[in-house]
Amino acid sequence: MPRLFFGLEIPEAVKASLLQMKTQVAGARWQSRGQLHLTLAFLGQVEEPQVALACDLARGVTRAPFELNVQGLGCFGSPESPKILWAGVSPEDQLREFQQNLANRLTNNGFTLKNPSFKPHITISRFRPPTGSVASLLESHRNTSFGTMPVKDFVLFESTPGAGGSVYTVLERFVLPTHTD
């Protein structure tokens, strides 16, 4: 069974900026260029026949394209013992509306999301204990701009575990309509 999630791809210029955050922090497993993305809806293991249904539901999402600013760093867990280091995006309201539209279409048709509470972010590092502090990194990059991200489409990714972390493969791309009637 494929392990799937819907997400946004990150433009190369933004990826380059985010990858510059890589520094020596105990326990950090920095994401590679190919691993940087923004998760919208994590489905987990999906039966093969359900993949087509997920794609059909995603095609029904209507939302005019919009733009996000990738700015600032945050973490899940405490800064002294982080679990995940991430970059934030704004404005969150348009992204949350878009994500909720997709999530509702999926959950109303039998899917259970593995990330029911949506916190818009781009993971740049995961941590294994013992972890070092990221407090100074958070402080020095609180308002750092990593660039803009046009949201003109979203994708269905397959996540395959690998030695260097998960490998993400785009299964299908869903283009947002330029106008909604």
Automatic annotation (TrEMBL):
What stretch of residues is annotated with the motif HXTX 1?
37-40
Q: What is the residue range of the motif HXTX 2?
A: 121-124
- According to its UniProt record, the EC number is 3.1.4.58
Which PANTHER family does the UniProt record give? RNA 2',3'-CYCLIC PHOSPHODIESTERASE
- What is the protein name given in its UniProt record? RNA 2',3'-cyclic phosphodiesterase
Q: Which family does it belong to?
A: Belongs to the 2H phosphoesterase superfamily. ThpR family.
Name the top EC class: hydrolase
Q: What is the lineage of its organism?
A: Bacteria, Pseudomonadati, Pseudomonadota, Gammaproteobacteria, Pseudomonadales
Q: Alphabetically list the UniProt keywords.
A: Hydrolase, Ligase
- NCBIfam families per record: 2_5_ligase
What function is annotated for this protein? Hydrolyzes RNA 2',3'-cyclic phosphodiester to an RNA 2'-phosphomonoester.
UniProt xrefs under Pfam families: LigT_PEase
InterPro entries from the xrefs?
Cyclic_Pdiesterase, Phosphoesterase_HXTX, RNA_CPDase
What's one GO MF term for it? 2',3'-cyclic-nucleotide 3'-phosphodiesterase activity
Active site annotated at which positions?
37 (proton donor), 121 (proton acceptor)
- Span of domain Phosphoesterase HXTX: 8-86, 91-168
Instruction: Give the reactions, separated by semicolons, that this protein catalyses.
Output: a 3'-end 2',3'-cyclophospho-ribonucleotide-RNA + H2O = a 3'-end 2'-phospho-ribonucleotide-RNA + H(+)
